[in-house]
TrEMBL record:
<keyword id="KW-0227">DNA damage</keyword>
<keyword id="KW-0233">DNA recombination</keyword>
<dbReference type="InterPro" id="IPR011335">
    <property type="entry name" value="Restrct_endonuc-II-like"/>
</dbReference>
<keyword id="KW-0234">DNA repair</keyword>
<dbReference type="GO" id="GO:0000287">
    <property type="term" value="F:magnesium ion binding"/>
</dbReference>
<dbReference type="GO" id="GO:0005737">
    <property type="term" value="C:cytoplasm"/>
</dbReference>
<keyword id="KW-0460">Magnesium</keyword>
<dbReference type="GO" id="GO:0008821">
    <property type="term" value="F:crossover junction DNA endonuclease activity"/>
</dbReference>
<dbReference type="InterPro" id="IPR011856">
    <property type="entry name" value="tRNA_endonuc-like_dom_sf"/>
</dbReference>
<feature type="binding site">
    <location>
        <position position="75"/>
    </location>
    <ligand>
        <name>Mg(2+)</name>
    </ligand>
</feature>
<keyword id="KW-0378">Hydrolase</keyword>
<feature type="binding site">
    <location>
        <position position="62"/>
    </location>
    <ligand>
        <name>Mg(2+)</name>
    </ligand>
</feature>
<keyword id="KW-0255">Endonuclease</keyword>
<protein>
    <recommendedName>
        <fullName>Holliday junction resolvase RecU</fullName>
        <ecNumber>3.1.21.10</ecNumber>
    </recommendedName>
</protein>
<dbReference type="GO" id="GO:0007059">
    <property type="term" value="P:chromosome segregation"/>
</dbReference>
<comment type="function">
    <text>Endonuclease that resolves Holliday junction intermediates in genetic recombination. Cleaves mobile four-strand junctions by introducing symmetrical nicks in paired strands. Promotes annealing of linear ssDNA with homologous dsDNA. Required for DNA repair, homologous recombination and chromosome segregation.</text>
</comment>
<dbReference type="GO" id="GO:0006310">
    <property type="term" value="P:DNA recombination"/>
</dbReference>
């Protein structure tokens, strides 16, 4: 018997953690960040349960929101390796983050490097650079060694506090005009 492994729920653990962190941020009045649902069209319901459905269109990223009046969007990823495989990032996600940035928002990834117990904030510029390089035959992953150590997400009560590197990213990107 062949065992199939779905990649669709690969990052559920990390997403659940980020959902919890976002609830804390909202309760404290620090940020309002919402999980973006995947657009699904239900075609059959039986006994109150969905028995048949399909994806209507490609989704965007996992999260969109606002932090101190600044629009943010990001996707949560996880890996058991010392690198983030670019195949874990879909082209439509890269395109969405690029458009979001073009309109003045801040786009990034949060990657849980599970074997190291480290969450890393990855600015969109890094994602775009590795994505372009991979398209022209370069490396097909983002190694931890290429990531700026200042963007390691600190832990607050065992939870990743991504507002810390997000604030630093905004401050350095905008030359301090927001903070």
């Amino acid at each position: 018997m062949t065992r199939w492994k779905s990649l669709g729920h690969k990052g559920d653990f990390t997403e659940n953690i980020i959902d919890h962190v976002n609830q804390i941020y909202e309760k404290r009045g620090l940020a309002l960040v919402s999980k973006i649902p995947v657009p699904v069209k239900v075609t059959q319901i039986s006994s109150g349960q969905i028995t048949q459905a399909f994806f209507e269109k490609k989704s965007t990223v996992d999260y969109c929101g606002v932090f101190r009046g600044i629009s943010i969007c990001f996707d949560a990823k996880e890996t058991n390796k010392d690198y983030l495989p670019l195949q874990n990032i879909h082209e439509h996600q890269v395109e969405y983050m690029a458009k979001f940035k073009k309109h003045g928002g801040f786009s990034f990834l949060i990657c849980n490097f599970k074997t190291h117990g480290i969450y890393h904030f990855i600015p969109f510029e890094i994602v775009a650079e590795f994505w372009r390089d991979a398209k022209s035959g370069g490396r097909k992953s983002i190694p931890m060694s290429a990531l700026d150590q200042q963007y390691i997400i600190p832990s607050q009560n065992g939870l990743p506090d991504y507002i810390v590197p997000l604030s630093m990213y905004i401050r350095t990107t905008t030359k301090g005009c927001y903070f």
